[in-house]
Amino acid sequence: MQVELPGFFDIQVNGFGGIDFNTPVLTADEIGASAAALRATGVTRFLPTLITGPSDRFALCARALVDANEPAIAGLHMEGPYISPVDGPRGAHPRADCVPASRADFDRRQDAASGRIVLVTLAPEVPGALDLIEHLAGRGVRVAIGHSDAPPATIRDAVSAGATLSTHLGNGCAATLPRHPNVLWEQLAADELWASVIVDGHHLPGSTVKVIARVKTWARTILVTDAMAAAGCPPGAYRLGDVDVEVGADRRVSLRGTPFLAGSALTMPDAIGNAVGFTGLPLTEVAAMASTVPAEYLGIPSAGTVTAEWDRATCQLQVRHVS
Ligand SMILES: [Zn+2]
User: Fold this and answer.
1) Is the pTM of this model over 0.90?
2) Cα 219 to ligand 1 centre (Å)
3) pLDDT tens per residue, range 145-183
4) What is the pLDDT of residues 187-236, one digit of tens each?
5) Which of 179, 124, 182, 185 lies closest to 157 in space, CA to CA?
6) DSSP string covering 69-94
């Protein structure tokens, strides 16, 4: 059946269509081509996401993205560098560039980005993080918990300081956790925290997606692709910042030569189809998780309309037209 949905709003995109946003030498044309490739998948607004890296490199990447004047770019998502340096929670972020949080370091990066950083993912257990959360919340910058090994009490402190989101909940944490309490239960239980999830079928089992969407409700669950340059491209070898990654025939993205996940090659229509299949929620609610819910979270309206073909039997959503 044909459906009309609000334009999708992806708040975590590292790259798309062969373009890596963590490359410091992007031209406006390359950024525009990537935005056009995203738009073909129904994404009319997005936050390019810059991962852990040195301040000068971040500044070059941020400037290129801001100077491109691409209307689909609603701001920047800064994921790191104030994250856990520990293997596991750190994920694919380079350890050498994980640093303590500081107002001065953030302010330098925000200046380089002309004030366009609207979302910061950090680990609250990193030195200086709680102070920085207050600083960011006071300036209207949204703060997410992610790539974290925080004890439950520190999660609660982060919420009190102003954190409002869990970035890709269920990923970016230790592979093995005490059964309870732990970093996942504490974030699930914190009603102040919205949750973003990567629903590619590799990052989270379907049952975990279903539980998160039920606990947080569809109105506070956000679908992100966490896509990297290979999204919209064939399987093969790619780069994510300084990190070598490979995309398998099953679209699973891993650190080259390891089993560790390193972003996704997911598109938003596939995330929506997967999420309907995993949660049993109606398409309209799941599509909201990819459009109006992230828009409400950020306080930035979604844009445009997606006309698509929806097959409930196979959970396939095919974008036909974006206006
Ligand atoms: Zn991440």
Assistant:
1) yes
2) 22
3) 999 999 999 999 999 999 999 999 999 999 999 999 999
4) 999 999 999 999 999 999 999 999 999 999 999 999 999 999 888 888 99
5) 124
6) T-TTB--EEEE-SSS--STTTTTTS-
* DSSP string covering 171-217: SSS-SS--SSS-HHHHHHH-TT-EEEEE-SSSSS-HHHHHHHHHHH-
Please say whether the beta carbons of 86 and 149 come within 8 A: yes
Q: How far is the CA of 154 from the centre of ligand 1 (A)?
A: 19
CA 226 – CA 198 distance, rounded (Å): 7
List C-alpha distances in Å: 220 to 122, 159, 166, 214, 309: 19, 15, 11, 10, 26
Distance 293 CA to ligand 1 centre (A): 20
Distance 143 CA to ligand 1 centre (A): 14
